[in-house]
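Suppose you are handed a protein chain with no further information: no name, no annotation, nothing but its sequence. What can you learn? This example shows the usual starting point.
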Amino acid sequence: MASITASVYTSHVPAIGAALDLGKTHEPYWQKVFAGYEFSKQWLKDNRPDVIFLVYNDHANAFSLEIIPTFAIGTAAEFTPADEGWGPRPVPKVIGHPELASHIAQSVIQDDFDLTIVNRMDVDHGLTVPLSLMCGKTGAWPCPVIPFAVNVVQYPVPSGQRCFRLGQAIRRAIESYDEPLKVQVWGTGGMSHQLQGPRAGLINREFDNAFLDRLIADPEGLSRMPHIDYVREAGSEGIELVMWLIARGAMADVAGGRPPKVAHRFYHVPASNTAVGHLILENQR
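A reasonable first move is to predict its three-dimensional structure. Written in structure tokens, the prediction is:
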């Protein structure tokens, strides 16, 4: 059967993608950001999965404000990089895994979570920047990717507790797939940031690092944090962090397994006008 080997958590700042695409990674401002992912790039080579299930939020490329699904799973064979204002990023197409994606949709919907099934979808920086950070410049991504888009743009957005429970349902779905695939679940977005209003540019180091501590040691308790705490402490866009709880809910310890191994942890400010957080957790057999 398929199994989840690890979870990866990372910010998906669009300016990071632009810096990489424009060859600015060694400039003093950006060098510290990219240095935090050097370990991760080698780790991914050494722990290459068969499929990545990547949780992210769309930024009005695949979905406009006319229709925004709360949870949407991409079941297509491939996904084209979307326009990001600078033009589509010069990165490879994302190859999907329709069979596993369809199985997850079937299982999770039968587990009482409503998913929107998307057979055609472009993917923006929310998905491609994490891939670039973990893979660097490449002619092809290392494995198929299943995009899983979460609405954290238009209120009402899902609670952290619902996201955490959804991650558990995704784990059950993956582990019931009748093929010995190694799957990683990635949660992206965040950390603290606000893009508009009087608090634009807000970064809360203390909150961010406390969030990482609790994500490792007390994910269930963390899942009960109300939306207002995210907005107050981490800014209006800090609510993206609920997506990390989907990936954390998919880990084995939540279902009674051993605590995960912290393979890597990184935090840096600033990157553009946000904080960058990154974590790799490995399931222990």
